[in-house]
């Protein structure tokens, strides 16, 4: 369900590839998207932590996709269509437009831009990105523990 640089249709989820993370938006037609953004502008494409401060406030914005891209690549990514039935396009678009200008709490873990757009498309929040990041951190922690364990065993053996 994910296609690089595919021409989006109204109601499609847009995954934007930033350095270190993905930003998500909902395509509403005529080149426009609705997305969560910091109150003072877009997250910088070169700064993966620019919009992940705990307790942040986000604002729902309607912008041209080309402006939100900031030179980054994107793809249409409706990968959850196999798991959840999308709401009717008219409902998705009208719900999104009603939220434009509203401020919302933002959390990298539970209230991020991917949660926001999946809630609009499917009626439920979902974020694969957070799960993937947690798995990567867990894998790194397991490797570090294994290295530490081996190092301790070698030190004990040498004594």
From TrEMBL:
Transmembrane segments: 137-155
Annotated ranges, domain LRAT: 13-129
InterPro entries: H-rev107_PLA/AT, LRAT_dom
Gene3D superfamilies, per the entry: endopeptidase domain like (from Nostoc punctiforme)
GO biological process: N-acylphosphatidylethanolamine metabolic process; positive regulation of keratinocyte differentiation
Keywords noted in UniProt: Hydrolase, Lipid metabolism, Membrane, Transferase, Transmembrane, Transmembrane helix
MF terms (GO), sorted A to Z: N-acyltransferase activity; phospholipase A1 activity; phospholipase A2 activity
Domain of life: Eukaryota
GO cellular component, one term: membrane
Keyword Phosphoprotein: no
Keyword Cell wall biogenesis/degradation among UniProt keywords: no
Family: Belongs to the H-rev107 family.
Protein name: Phospholipase A and acyltransferase 4
Species in which this protein is naturally found: Chlorocebus sabaeus (Green monkey)
Recorded name of the encoding gene: PLAAT4
């Amino acid at each position: 369900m994910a296609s690089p640089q595919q021409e989006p249709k109204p109601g499609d989820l847009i995954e934007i590839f930033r350095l270190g993370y993905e930003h998500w938006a909902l395509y509403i037609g005529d080149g426009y998207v609705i997305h969560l953004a910091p109150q003072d502008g877009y997250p910088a494409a070169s700064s993966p932590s620019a919009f992940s401060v705990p307790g942040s406030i986000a604002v729902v914005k309607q912008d041209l996709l080309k402006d939100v891209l900031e030179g980054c690549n994107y793809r249409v990514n409706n990968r959850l269509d196999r798991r959840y039935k999308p709401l009717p396009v008219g409902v998705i678009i009208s719900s999104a437009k009603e939220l434009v200008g509203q401020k919302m709490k933002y959390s990298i873990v539970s209230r991020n831009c991917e949660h926001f757009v999946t809630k609009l498309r499917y009626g439920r929040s979902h974020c694969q990105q957070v799960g993937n990041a947690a798995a990567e951190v867990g894998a790194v922690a397991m490797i570090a523990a294994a290295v530490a364990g081996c190092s301790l065993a070698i030190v004990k053996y040498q004594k």
